[in-house]
Amino acid sequence: MKKMSIVAAFLLVVASATWIMADPGGKGYGEGCGWGMGPSALASLNLTAEQSENIRALRETCLKEITPIRSNLFTKRSELKLLWIQTRLDPDKIRATQKEIQGLIGQLQEKGTNCRLSFRNILTSGQISKLLAQGFGRGGGFGCGKGKGFGSGRCPGGY
Questions:
Q1: Residue 32 CB burial class (10 angstroms; 0-12, 13-18, ≥19)
Q2: Which position has the higher pLDDT, 38 or 110?
Q3: What is the pLDDT of residues 31-86, one digit of tens each?
Q4: Angle formed at CA 114 by CA 77 and CA 66, multiple of 5 degrees
Q5: Is residue 142 a contact partner of residue 115, using CB atoms and an 8 Å limit?
Q6: How far apart are CA 133 and CA 139, in angstroms?
Q7: Residue 83 and residue 97 in contact, taking contact as beta carbons nearer than 8 Å
Q8: What's the average model confidence in pLDDT over 18-31?
Q9: What domains, with CATH codes, occur in the chain?
Q10: Within 10 A of 148 (CB to CB), how many other CB atoms are there?
Q11: Which pLDDT score, from 0 to 100, does residue 135 have?
Q12: Which residues are CB-contacts of 45 (< 8 A; sequence separation ≥ 6)?
């Protein structure tokens, strides 16, 4: 009987891990397409070499700051999913983990805002006007999304 319980517990852990890793739903905090724009938006701004280098450096810095937070967020969301599938729920642990997740999301939003502000400071007023005319700043944004890049702005194909 004890052996059967151990096997059942092991199968439950494997099944849970598979379910968590395979879950495609939800809003992921991953690398998106850009600060709410595709690569062609930057190309149309006629950036100087110095501006391009500053934007590249800013992107690297922002990714370095955001990556550990996103990783921690993924871990906490996985922990929360595991807490919810227990036969005996621990409401205090669930609430505490949810608060941690909310804190991490807040950190991501703050970092994203700081990066977007820094990005805007690199541009001239004419470039900012052109960028706003292309739809930058209307939804989407830096820091959350699915796919490769920087934010949840729609990629050129509408994804």
A1: buried
A2: 110
A3: 443 455 666 778 888 899 999 999 999 999 999 999 999 999 999 999 999 999 99
A4: 35
A5: yes
A6: 14
A7: yes
A8: 47
A9: 2-133 (1.20.120.1490)
A10: 10
A11: 75
A12: 123, 127, 130, 131
